Amino acid sequence: MSFLDSLENNLKALESREEGGVVSTKSREKERSKAKAEAPWAERLRNDPWTQKLMQDVTRAGFQRRTKVTLLWMGSTLRMEARRLRLELRPEVDGIVAVYLKGQEESQREPVDLKEDPGGLVARWMTSVDIQKKLDEEEAARTAAAFAGDTTE
């Protein structure tokens, strides 16, 4: 490879790196400003007594239903999961939002008011968990019936 070819390749590499650098710098700045705007809500979600009550209520509701509820902090998001259903509390620029998910699919969003009792939020999510539990039990019964009927030896 000649000196000129090498120089041309190096210049092309630098140009492509600069273009990506500008884009990534802009996106980093955008993410940083968004995180800064969300920070007060994230702090409030993490430290407010409302959150402790929510976690107690959702754990108690799961126990009453004999359903394990997993609580997990993912950065500034509080995730609650039971029977492949999730409820995520996400701080956003203008408040906290409750996001209902089944698998990766978002089914519903609603704003969260930390002045209200978290019991209503828990009850709404547990209704979905109850429905999913019933569907899981019906599927298990069908599978068991199919297995019992398939005893041909």
- Share of helix among residues? 55-70%
Specify Rg, calculated over alpha carbons.
25 Å
Share of β-strand residues:
15-25%
User: What is the oligomer described by this structure?
Assistant: single chain
Summarize, please.
With 153 residues, the protein is α+β, with helices and mostly antiparallel strands.
Structure notes:
60% of the residues lie in helices and 23% in strands. The chain has 153 residues and is α+β, with helices and mostly antiparallel strands. It has one domain. It has a five-stranded antiparallel sheet with strand order 1-2-3-4-5. The radius of gyration is 25 Å and the shape is flat.
Topology (elements, then pairings):
Layout: H1 3-47, H2 49-64, E1 70-74, E2 77-82, E3 85-92, E4 95-102, E5 105-112, H3 119-149
Antiparallel strand pairs: 1-2, 2-3, 3-4, 4-5
Write out key terms for the chains shown.
153 residues, 3 helices, alpha+beta, 23% strand, single chain, 5-stranded antiparallel sheet
